[in-house]
Design a protein that fits this description.
966 residues; alpha+beta; six-stranded antiparallel beta sheet; 18 helices; binds 2',3'- cyclic AMP
């Protein structure tokens, strides 16, 4: 049964009156089918008409009922079975009720009119007579709803109107939804609404040791059924569901979180002693790290690393060890290397100091994941003790003293710093020039100096270092008005000395900005290495041609028109000069002055060829009226631009419109008076030079490549003569037409640099394409035609290597450092020596020593007229003219795999290994033929590998690699 019944009892009945005849309801006892006595009220006045006999109940308290059910059990004889009663015999009786707040006083007169009729009750069964004349009693059961009832109580009454009835039982009840437990929530007894279509919402309360997830609810239906269970409770931590209740976990078990899960057994090395455990505590000597879940075993700290050994060479110490025999049961093992340097004894005790901060650890001193570390910058003539400890996630929780492996290393003689007082020669906002003297003549010649510096305020955070061969240096890329701390040491054949005292100097003093132009101090060595006749020839060529340019040119140079940092300032009669559109207050005025407005109806856009910063670049035709249409490229300014973008977009047109040279991209005109705004330029069928070369790798003769270089130099001669400094000269900004003519494009400085994916922010805040830019432009934004000449040298290298990325995958920071240290790009494979020499000339540290563009054009013309001069290739030479005296610190490649990864050629690892080239030593001796033989067939890849091998040879020669094996 879904419901229980509230029984409204006890019931008693009162026979009320007999009216008008003397008949009445009688209380009698009869026997049922099983011969059990039945007490009942009966009436049977079927012979007499107009019966009206009443039987009334006692006053029944309503309690919580809103609707009352009355179940009647009775017998009723059918009139046909009684002779001579037709017309008077009835087969029904009536049920009435009356609601009152109080029972009527005993003497109250019964007034049938006060009662409301519930129903007329008829029988389903009736008495039947057997053949033997026995009467068989057939019981009828009928249920009637009474109500809604609202008063405190009520009476029931039965009216007989002339039937033969026996009323056996009357049950009065109401329906309730019984109290219940569902989803770990308890719901109380609830009385349904009278209106059977609406439900009573009941909120459950979580059972003991359970907590609510979603509010538990049930709805009580009119029939006393619970419907629509919603929400639920879950057992709290330390308890699990058993039956409909939450029981505590037994000792040795735990449950960490509230939920439907069961209690779990404690993980290894932990236990719970009480009931209802939410966690198992670690046994003595075992721990859990903060982030360890409570479900994993407790662990302990590892034992000491084993087999610690040290290898030492001139520049590096290598510590290696084996993992500890006991990892403590964890996988998060790392190692820390600590250092002590002991310098003699005091009062009989050895004086030792921590020395981690003096040394450079690769990869780092603490938290090392592998079982080795390289240590650089150690002093010679010193005793170091290195301690290596293995730590895991619980090391800090365990014993205070951790087991350590240690080793003591004595380095060779190298002596003290050899650096005397360090002097600041000058400082600008971003640079400081320093010089110093050697303390005294040394038996070991000083190879170079290592300068370590850091912002005084930031000492703990980071430091930088640079190297120089001379006893002076310009440290660039510094912050203005900032105090820096410098300390120096020298390197001799015996290795590094100790560091000098610390010296503090600040940037941005009264000499700011002057010194670089005055050239007071020798800067770090440049790349040019003497001794090669070709270099001398090239240099002489530039000296002679430079001198023979005549007085007028010399005068222009002296006014620094071509090299000046400011454009649009010098106007020399007879020579057209570039006008910077930014000098116009109203930029539309510049557009108006230098460009031609084109009627858009003349432009026919045919296809999209690329995406520019401001919108699509399209190919199409320009109608010229009568003659043949001109193919054009159309740069569009996409909709929704702001005024600043429109101005920047048209700025390039205002610049381009001033140029008229076969090697500079030609502006056809602009559309500014209608939408979209467009810049229309001559069409260059082969697109940008870098991708064009990559697409046609190895397909051109050297003379064709020289032709391209000449065209670029010629365009640049024109631009520099105009006084225009490009600032972003790179192969990606050269366009190539159908006839392979190269033209300089991409003007408009700020936009160019914002747009250029190769441009990076420098410490001075500007955005600069580092790999293409001269050091003085990077360091203090000294842009000039001489810095364009540097970029031109890089473009030469890109052309001769068919679009290779300058400096490959080196980081921008490494490029800056290595240039500063004198490193220059080696000749690409197949590059004539004369061209590489020209590149090196463009990459002179001193910008005044770089070639002028017109000299470059003349030189290239000479080479073209005398092609024999192009036959000597760099790989035919037996040494490396491009090699700087000192090499930059490249990462320590320790395997062929690492080396190939670093030049993005890992796909050939197996080719190298299968052919027996398993050490860097053996690789360094490989020829181009070897590289082809092992299966590197793409020319670009051969070229990349050859270039890297050249670098590798130099590193091995200078002792930076130790020929580690795979
Ligand atoms: O390397 P590309 O083919 O050459 O893809 C880019 C693209 O538009 C987005 O700059 C090409 N492009 C730019 N200017 C011209 C032009 N004047 N003629 C032909 N293609 C051009 C460029």
């Amino acid at each position: 049964m879904p419901c229980i019944f509230g029984t409204l009892s006890p019931l008693r009945f009162i026979v009320l009156f007999r009216d008008p005849s003397p008949a009445e309801w009688d209380a009698t006892t009869e026997m049922d089918e099983q011969n059990r006595p039945i007490h009942m009220f009966q009436v049977c006045n079927v012979m007499e008409p107009n019966q009206n006999n009443w039987l009334r109940s006692n006053w029944i308290q309503r309690q919580a009922a809103q609707k009352v059910f009355v179940e009647l059990r009775f017998t009723l004889r059918d009139c046909n079975s009684i002779p001579w009663v037709s017309g008077t015999c009835k087969e029904t009786f009536n049920l009435f009720y009356l609601e009152t707040e109080q029972p009527h006083p005993a003497n109250t007169r019964f007034l049938p009119a006060d009662y409301a009729k519930v129903d007329t009750i008829a029988a389903d069964e009736s008495f039947t007579q057997t053949d033997l004349g026995d009467r068989i009693l057939r019981l009828n059961t009928e249920v009637r709803e009474v109500g809604p009832v609202t008063r405190r109580g009520f009476y029931l009454a039965f009216q007989d109107v002339g039937a033969c009835i026996a009323l056996v039982s009357v049950k009065v009840f109401y329906k309730r939804c019984p109290s219940t437990l569902r989803n770990l929530a308890a719901f109380p007894d609830t009385v349904p609404r009278v209106d059977s279509s609406s439900l009573v919402e009941v909120r459950g309360a979580c059972v003991e040791n359970a907590e609510e997830r979603d509010t538990p609810k049930l709805y009580c239906g009119a029939d006393g059924d619970w419907l629509v269970p919603l929400g639920h409770c879950v057992c709290s931590p330390g308890h699990e569901e058993t039956g409909a209740v939450c029981q505590a976990c037994k000792p040795g078990f735990y449950k960490a979180f509230a939920g439907n899960t069961k209690c779990s057994k404690c993980p290894p090395h932990s236990s719970s002693h009480d009931q209802a455990g939410t966690i198992c505590h670690c046994d003595k000597g075992f721990y859990r790290a903060a982030k360890d879940p409570s479900s994993i075993a407790c662990t302990h700290s590892p034992s000491a690393p084993r087999n610690l050994i040290c290898l030492i060479n001139e520049t590096a110490l290598f510590l290696t060890w084996s993992p500890p025999s006991d990892s403590g049961g964890r996988k998060d093992l790392t190692y820390n290397v600590l250092c002590h340097r002991c310098a003699g004894t005091s009062n009989g005790e050895e004086v030792c100091e921590p020395c981690e901060t003096d040394l450079r650890f690769i990869p780092r001193p603490l938290g090392i994941n592998q079982t080795s570390v390289a240590i650089l910058d150690y002093a010679k003539n010193a005793n170091y003790t290195f301690f290596v400890e293995a730590v895991n996630g619980v090391s800090d929780l365990g014993q205070v003293l951790r087991p350590l492996a240690n080793i003591t290393v004595a380095t060779d003689q190298a002596g003290p710093s050899l650096v005397g007082v360090v002097r600041k020669d000058w400082a600008s906002d971003n640079s400081i020039a320093l010089s110093w003297l050697e303390v005294e003549p040394q038996p070991n010649a000083i190879l170079d100096y290592d300068i370590k510096y850091y912002e005084k305020e930031q000492e703990q955070l980071s430091y930088s270092s640079t190297r120089t061969k001379n006893p002076n240096v310009i440290v660039t890329g510094l912050k203005p008005a900032t105090v820096y701390v410098f300390h120096l040491r020298s390197r001799t054949a015996a290795g590094f000395t100790t560091y000098s005292n610390k010296f503090e100097f600040s940037t941005g003093d009264e000499n700011s900005g002057m010194a670089a132009d005055q050239g007071q101090v020798l800067v770090v060595v440049t790349a040019a290495v003497g001794g090669f006749s070709l270099l001398i020839i090239v240099t002489l060529f530039f000296l002679i041609t430079g001198r023979c340019q005549g007085y007028i040119k010399a005068k222009i140079k002296s006014e620094d028109k071509r090299r000046g940092p400011f454009q649009n300032v010098v106007s020399i009669p007879g020579i057209k000069t570039y006008v910077d559109p930014d000098t116009y207050e109203d930029s539309t005025q510049a557009v108006h002055e230098f460009t031609k407005e084109i009627d858009p109806s003349r432009i026919c856009i045919e296809r999209v060829i690329g995406a520019g910063e401001f919108g699509e670049v399209c190919g199409g035709r320009l109608r010229t009226g009568g003659q043949r249409d001109t193919p054009v490229a159309i740069k569009t300014l996409k909709g929704g631009y702001v005024e600043r973008q429109r101005k920047d977009f048209l700025r390039e047109a205002s610049i381009m419109g001033q140029f008229d040279n076969p090697n500079v991209i030609r502006l056809e005109g602009v559309v500014t008076k209608s939408r979209p705004v467009m810049i229309v330029v001559e069409y260059m069928e082969n697109g940008s030079l870098d991708s064009f070369l990559r697409k046609h790798d190895g397909q051109f003769t050297v003379l064709q490549l020289v032709g391209m270089l000449r065209a670029i130099a010629s365009g640049m001669t024109y631009l520099s003569d105009m006084g225009y400094v490009h600032r972003d000269l790179a192969a990606r900004n050269i366009l190539v037409n159908e006839a392979l003519v190269c033209k300089v494009s991409d003007f408009g400085l700020s936009r160019v640099l914002e747009d250029d994916p190769d441009a990076a922010y420098t410490t001075t805040g500007g955005k600069i394409p580092i790999r293409w830019t001269a050091p003085e432009a990077i360091a203090y934004r000294k842009f000039s035609s001489a810095s364009d000449a540097w970029s031109y040298g890089i473009v030469m290298w890109e052309v001769m290597s068919y679009g290779e990325r300058p400096y490959w995958e080196m980081s921008n920071q490494d490029v800056i450092l290595s240039i500063e240290e004198g490193y220059r790009l080696p000749a690409p494979m197949g590059c004539p020596v004369a061209l590489h020499q020209l590149m090196l000339h463009c990459w002179q540290k001193e910008r005044g020593q770089r070639p002028y563009f017109n000299d470059v054009v003349s030189f290239l013309d000479k080479l073209t007229r005398n092609p024999g001069s192009l036959l000597t290739l760099v790989e035919h030479m037996h040494s490396f003219p491009e090699s700087p005296v000192d090499m930059p610190d490249y990462p320590l490649f320790i395997s062929i795999g690492d080396w190939l990864d670093s030049i993005k050629m890992s796909q050939y690892k197996n080719n190298f290994l299968a052919a027996g080239f398993t050490t860097l030593d053996s690789v360094s001796a490989m020829t181009l033929e070897d590289i082809r033989r092992i299966g590197v067939s793409l020319i670009g890849h051969q070229r990349r590998i050859v270039s890297s091998i050249q670098t590798l040879r130099l590193q091995l020669l200078s002792g930076q690699h130790n020929g580690f094996h795979v």
